[in-house]
Amino acid sequence: MTTYFIRRILLMIPTFLGSTILIFTILQMAPGGPLERTIQQLQAGAMQAGEAVGSVGDIMGGGSSVLPESALRELKRFYGFDKPVHQRYLTWLGVWPREIKHREVEFHNGALEAQKNVGRGTYMTLRLKGDQVEVLDKDGIVSKLWKAAIDEEGSKENVILTTIFQTEFSGILTGNLGTSYTYDQPVTEVMAPRFKISVFFGLTGLMLSYIVCIPLGIRKALNHGSAFDFLSSVTIFIAYSIPGFALGGVLLVLFGGGTFWDVFPLGGFRSPTEVWESLSLWGQIKDQLWHAVLPIIAWSIGSFAGLTILMKNSLLENISQDYIRTAFAKGLQEKRVVWVHAIRNSVIPIASGIGGVIGVVIAGSYLIEKVFNIDGFGKMGFEAILDRDYPITLGFLVIVVMIRLVANILSDIALASVDPRIRFK
Questions:
Q1: Residues contacting 322, CB < 8 A, separation 6+
Q2: Which helix (H) or strand (E) holds 405?
Q3: Of 44, 291, 381, 425, which is most buried with the most CB atoms under 10 A?
Q4: pTM of the entire structure?
Q5: How far is CA 244 from the centre of its chain?
Q6: Cβ atoms of residues 22 and 16 within 8 Å
Q7: In terms of Cα–Cα distance, which of 303, 301, 302, 297 is closest to 372?
Q8: CATH for 187-418, among 3.40.50.2300, 1.10.3720.10, 3.30.450.280, 3.40.50.10420?
């Protein structure tokens, strides 16, 4: 079994690379990216000022005064569009050196040498050697920190444009998910508080679902065909037919200070900061629970029907097996037969799907977070896609893919724990 799980962990690597390569390429190739959005904002500002502006294509081609050619180069460099797609991916991954601290240097009229101030009065000498550029420090020694390359796109007749820069290995493999375009903060700092919110609601809803649905499914199986079984099935399937976000809206109207009863707050993860900090520990616990009741109901309602019916049908199938009839024939008590023999085998289908459930609930639900005005992980990921905030979008992708891969392994572990017949090879 150890060999099997080692092999599964190793298979996570190509799966992760395949998923991220696909999404990264789609994002980079999709129209309306961050560069185009920035240019459109500049266009709007120029039009409000009464200036004549060209199309986005004209501006990106350097044919407009709205955005100088040098500024366009800086924007492309900032967003990484000055490099081919495969190099951008490897840089994001952290296995290709990332260029930092850029400086532009021009060689005029066939000059082969130029100097550039790189900060704090330190000058570097750049020397052209064919299509290569050497960077020399003040002692005339080739610099180990600074490198340079010719910018073919920016070069013109009698002017050779070069870029001097430093490099570092910085990407997701080094723990650097980049900086958000929208928030201008490291992606990890933007994601951390929102991820905690989605984990809180997701795991709470998951635990409540299992705590309620497994006993309910067992009771329905033991009372199959009774009035309780019929009425509970009707109730469960009615609840299942209502999307969680729609149920959340109804709950807010009924219990959130709307038309009927003012019992729960109108959304939010907790009270405003100034109110929250003034509360005692017990007051904060009550406030958190007060805000969490309706979102958790909406969050977990969809899984109630599936888990309950799965548990019921699995138990009914096992009760009809020969080994159960044999146990009864031996004179074992009904409680022992059901709770010791039948139920352990009945939870196998539920255990095998626990990984998928964990992956879904921890990733968050944008619609439910939107309805309850909760600034969670799912809402953040969806808005990042709309805003073309690639660092957050890709960071969200990394977290979700890793959660799903780890959750699948947890499913295998749970399956092996409840079913002694399982032997992974």
A1: none
A2: helix 390-418
A3: 381
A4: 0.79
A5: 21
A6: no
A7: 297
A8: 1.10.3720.10
- Print burial letters for 86-108: b (CB count within 10 Å at least 16), e (below 16): eebbbbbbbebbbbeeebbbebe
Cα separation, 4 vs 328, in Å, equals: 38
Where in the chain are the domains? 97-168, 187-418
Structure token pair of residue 153: 């796109």
Record the tokens describing residue 34, joined without a space.
């961050």
Cβ contact 177:187 at 8 Å: yes
DSSP string across 42-73: HHHHHHHTT-----HHHHHTT--SSS-HHHHH
| Secondary structure percentages of the chain, helix, strand, coil, to 5 | 60, 10, 30
Q: What is the pLDDT of residues 34-84, one digit of tens each?
A: 777 777 777 666 666 555 555 545 555 554 555 667 777 777 888 888 788
- Give the tens place of pLDDT for each residue, 102-152: 888 888 877 888 888 877 778 888 888 877 888 888 778 888 888 888 887
